[in-house]
C-alpha cells in the first residue's frame, strides 16, 4: 500500500485507487437500476449521510461509525466496504473492542482533535460492549439502505445473530445528592480574581444550571438560543418563564424556566454585557465563548467544560483520603449526559409527577394546542418550581 495510505484520515481528505474505492466491489449490485448516482463506496456513504444533514447529532454519530468501518476496511484489510463479507464483520467487532495498532487508530490520550489535524484518529479508545452494539446497529441501517438504493447486492450484516432486546436497566449514570453537592461546592470555589476567571466561573455556573434545572442535552445547549426564553401569564395571572427547546429528532418542548433559572440567566447575561432578559427571537447562544465572540460553542467544547469540572471535583475529593477514591472515580466517569439523568432522578426523588418529568426532559413530543394542555403546563411549571431546585 502506498505511503499516503498508511495513516487513516477523515473522509474529506481521502484519495483512493480504484481497487480500494469500491468501484469494482464484489458485493456491488449487478443488473439493477441504482437509485443513487454513486460511482464508489464513499459517494454511496455520503448519499446515505445526506439524509441526516439537518440533524447534526445524528449525522455526526452516523458519519463516525461509517468512517470507522470504511477506514478499517481500506487500511487494515486492504479492501473496499463493498467487498466485505459476514466473516469480515465478525473480525471488525473484535477490532472495536481493542483498535490496534493503537498509534495508528487511537488519538493520543483519548483526545478529540479537529478533523483537519494530523493527530486526528478514528477512535479515542476501545469501545464498550454497548457502544459496539450501537455501532453495528448503525452500520446495519446503512447497509440495508445501500441495498435498497440498488448500490449493493446484499447486506452481510443481515446474517448476524440478533439477540432479544432486554428491558433497559435502571439509570445508574447519575450523581446522588452528595456527589451533586460536591460538584456545586467545587464550582462555587472557583477563583474569580481576574476578569477571565470571573467570566469562566459565571459561564460554568450558568451551563450547569441549564443542564440540571432544564435537564437539557448538551447538543440542545449548543443549538438553541436565548431568544427561545419567553414569559406568559397563567390562568391565575402569575407570570411564568419558559424555554422553548428544539431537541432530539427535531421535536420541540417547553422547559419550565424556574425563578432560579431566570435569576441565573439575568446574572450571566449581565456578566456578558447583555441586558438582563433576552428579547424575542434573539439569536444569542445559550452559552457563549469567553471574550467578544457571539458564536455558539461546539458540543465538544461544552463537553470539555463539563468534564473539567467533574475532574476538578474528583481531584478535590481524592485529596481527602482513600475512603473517597471510589466516589472520585465515579465523578471522573461522569459526563454532561449524567446531569440530565441526575435532573430526572432528583425530580423523581422529590415526587414530581412522572408525566411532568417526561415532558420536562422531552421523552415524548409536546402538544400545547388546547386550553386543557395549557393548564397542565402551568401545573407542571408550578410543581417543578416548588420541588426541583439547584440551590446555588
From TrEMBL:
It is found in: Cytoplasm. Residues 373-392 are annotated as: Disordered. Keywords: Cell cycle, Cell division, Chromosome partition, Cytoplasm, DNA integration, DNA recombination, DNA-binding. Residues 39-147 form the Core-binding (CB) domain. It holds the Pfam family Phage_integrase. This is Tyrosine-type recombinase/integrase. It comes from Aromatoleum evansii. InterPro entries: CB, DNA_brk_join_enz, Integrase-like_cat_sf, Integrase_catalytic, Integrase_recombinase_N, Tyrosine_recombinase_XerCD.
